[in-house]
C-alpha cells in the first residue's frame, strides 16, 4: 500500500463502520465484527484501568462490570463532560479514544473520511480533531454526509449503473426514505465537466415495519410489502432509473418479495449495509490520488462559486482554482507559494455556476520589490470569514538567502453568492 492506509468510516449515534482501500482488489473492504456484520457498537468501556471499545465494552455493560459510555457521538456534538469512574472526561476526548482503539490495527493512516448523517462546521471541526488525535493530519481528514457518500460510491461503479438516475432506499424500524442521484444540466463553457446531486425525493413512516424487524410477522410483512411497492412506484413515476440500492437494518429480513420484483424490473438492484463507509473510503482514495476528473457533487451546503488564478502548473498554463466549487466554505481555506513573472498586478476570476457569469477582480502589486523573473515569491493565503466573504492575501515571501522577505502585504475581499445561492437553478 502506498505510504499508509486509506480509510472511510460511517459514524452515527449507535455504531461505526470501517472500510479500508485494498490495493490488490482496487476497491474498499469493510472490517467484519462477525460474519456479514460490519457494525461496531459505539460504546467505550473502562475496566481494571484498561479502555475497551465496541463489542467488548457492550459485554461490560451487559454483565454490569466497569464503567461504560454510550451515545458518544451525540455527547461529543454537545461537548458534554462525562464521568468515567473517578474522573470527568470531555466527550470529544472519549470519542477520539474510541477511534484510537478501533483503528489501532492501522499503523499509519494516510487519508481518512468520516461519513455522518449530516454535517456542519462544528461537526467537521470536531471530527478533524478526532482524526488528528489518531495521528492523521487535519488536511487529510474529510467529513461528508450520507448523501455525498452515496454519490462517491456511485462514481466508482460501472457507468451504466448511473447512466440515468440511481436510487437509494434507506429503511430502519419505522421509516423508509428514498434518494435519487441525478446529473445536473451541462453548463455553458464548462466542457465535459459533470455536476451531480443527490436529493431526498420521498419518505414514509410505516408502522408495519416494527412488526417485521427483527422477527418476521407474515401478515404484517405482506402489508408492509404492499405499502413499500406502492411507495416505489410513486418514487419511480416518470423517472428512468438505472440501478437501485437498499441499505439499513430494516431490509435485513426478506419481507418485500413483491417490492423486489418492481425494483428489479428493467434495472439492477443491490442490497448491503456498508455503502456509506465504502463511499467515504472512495472519497479518501480520490483525495489521496489527486483525481480531479471525477464528477463534482453539489448540494445546498456546497459552494457554487469558484475562484481562479492564472498560473503555470506542471508546464501547463491556465486558470487554476484556489477555491473550488463543490467544497464547504469552512474547509476552503488554503495557502500557496508562487513564483511571479514580470507583472504589476494579479487578475482573479470568480466563476458562478448558478448564473454562469464570470467576474474579474484585479489586485495591484505596486510596492512589491523589483526582482528578476522567478525571483519574486509570493505567499497567497485564502481565508473565509463566513460563507459569503473570502479574504485573499498576498505577501512577499522573499527568495531564500538571496532576497529576504519585505513587509509587502496586500489583501482582496471577495463577496460570493453564498453556499446555496443559486444551486436550484442548476437542476
Tell me what the structure shows.
Strand 1 (5-11) and strand 2 form a beta hairpin. The strands form 6 sheets. Strands 1, 2, 3, 4, 10 and 11 form a 6-stranded mixed sheet that branches. The protein has a 6-stranded mixed sheet with strand order 16-15-12-13-14-17, sandwiched between helices. 22% of the residues lie in helices and 37% in strands. The longest helix has 19 residues, at 218-236. It is α+β, with helices and mostly antiparallel strands. The chain contains 9 helices and 25 strands.
Mean pLDDT: 88
Structural class label: alpha+beta
Please compute the radius of gyration using only Cα atoms.
Answer: 25 Å
Note the gap between the termini: 40 Å
| Poorly predicted parts | none
Lay out the secondary structure.
Blueprint: E1 5-11, E2 15-22, E3 27-30, E4 40-41, E5 44-47, E6 50-53, H1 54-63, E7 67-69, H2 72-77, E8 81-84, E9 87-90, H3 91-102, E10 109-116, H4 121-133, E11 141-145, H5 146-155, E12 165-171, E13 175-183, E14 195-205, H6 209-212, H7 218-236, E15 241-247, H8 257-263, E16 268-271, H9 275-288, E17 296-297, E18 305-313, E19 316-323, E20 334-340, E21 345-352, E22 358-364, E23 376-386, E24 389-396, E25 409-415
Parallel strand pairs: 1-10, 10-11, 12-15, 14-17, 15-16
Antiparallel strand pairs: 1-2, 2-3, 2-4, 5-6, 5-7, 8-9, 12-13, 13-14, 18-19, 18-21, 20-23, 21-22, 23-24, 24-25
Helix pairs in contact: 3-4, 5-9, 7-8
